[in-house]
User: Fold these one by one.
Assistant:
Number 1:
Amino acid sequence: IGSAGIVNFANALATRGLFASIEGLGIQNNDVGGDGMRALSKAAIGGAMSKLVWLDVSDTPIGDDGFGSLVQAPAAGGLRNLRWIGASGNSIGDAGVGVLSTMSRDAFSHKLQGIQGIQGIQGIQGIDLSQNNIGDEGLCALAAGSGPLDALWMLNLSANAFELEPAGAGLRALAAALRGGGFRAKGHLKHIKPTA
């Protein structure tokens, strides 16, 4: 399925209410691209796929822009039940992870202010970001925004661009966030895989 096909699929979801009770969507290994991901995210913000629990968009070249639109959807009121995102092999870099950390902080601050119905990405339990282009800058951004990802128990960062040996600034920041209680490390985070 190409980007145009995904855009048509997203439009059908938005206008016809198709698959209203769908809980999982796997569109991996397709040419979704940024345009397709933006269309799916827009449909989700409009109420489509409201019961979606898992979404696998691995190997769909969505890039930073597409990933950014995906993680913005929950903060805008869509995908409130989403618990797992598979986004490996998508050329997601520091900018995409930066949007994730920014959205988590923004959504969290709205929740703290008592605005009802804005859950942001608090419910996400697992994110597979392996085989992307996340460098030390992206890991530092993720570590800085980690606290609001309360339910996260799995984060796969294998085969990315950050420095492993010796540990670069990104891994040091992530380790410090974990030691300081980021990701609620003592309560929820069970698996983090930053290996090459």
Number 2:
Amino acid sequence: NQYSSESEAKSVIEEMDASSSDELEVLKESIEDNTKQLTDSIDFLTQLGVNCSQKKEENELSVELRNEEQEKLLEEIKVLEDFIENNPDDVAGVYLAQQNILLKQNQYDKSVAEGIAEAELYAKFVSFCETNTLEKEKEISDLEDTLETENNEFISLKGYNDTLKVVLELFPSQEAARSSTSIIEQLNQILIEFNT
């Protein structure tokens, strides 16, 4: 379609201007929302990395201390077993040694059980870290792609909208009123360009 009169052209251009202005506002809000979501996701990923690294250090220290505790208990049990073997006639001493062996063996078994439970819990935490890290990295990548697309669309649409506003400024001028035929030709040419 082409414009046949200045009033028709102005009306159509005003509608296009209003429509593109609305689209710009919607796009602007989407960019703001996605930018905030991107910032939140980056903050979450950063804090997740800190928490996971801290937990890893805590786990390594706990495993080291638990291993040392278990080695010490085994050494003490070995000493008591050697005492029993080397002093079979010391009834009282053997009895006390046997009781201590039972006590330390219980402590060792408890430490092993706690270590297994702790290892299982830590494995779940590692899985949580890995899963959430991958999800957040993908979310961040997708948001960055979306924002790049939206920003490009915004720039293009803003240029289109600015052009419409410049065109609308032609109508109230006295010079435009005296050369409406020329304006119509210009507007028709702009319409052709917008539609290609």
Number 3:
Amino acid sequence: KPYADATISVLCQCNKCYRGELVVETPISEADGALLDRVNRALSKHSALFADITPDFISDMSVKEYGFGEIIFSEKKCEKALGLIVSGGAVAKKKRADSEVVMSGFSEGDIFGAAALYTDSDKYTSEISSLAKHTEVLFIPQRRMTELFSVNADAAIAYIVLLSNKIRYLNDKIDSFTSPNAFSKLCRYLCENNST
């Protein structure tokens, strides 16, 4: 790929996961102005969470690029990091032996991995894969988020709000899956989407 300053590396930093594919990784310290603009635009979508960060906060991080269909996170592919979609898109799915359920979609500025960031488990509960030809993801390590929360109570509260909203979303998903019939599912959908 035509990235002058990019390095190719295997992603997993925890040394517990199998990561078979190689992706393009661009250190923030070597990023061009356009990439930095995309990162800052994505971070700004979570102004309450990242309001007081300085350029030093992300200076030792990298943006990783995935091609269409490439797996970003799964049970076997995990990082103790918050994922921020810089560009492109991704989808979260729950896979079973004979089926899969789309749980959520992610676009520029969306965050994933929030619920797994401080869990005791080494496994991620769903699979997240790229939906675009080029999906760029900034991974913010757990230690950096902990540093942020230790000096910024507003960021910690914003994180709790983010987790609370995700819990509500998942509860709504459970309700829609457990509706007793198609009519109930339709009514629930119409109510949730403010349709008349």
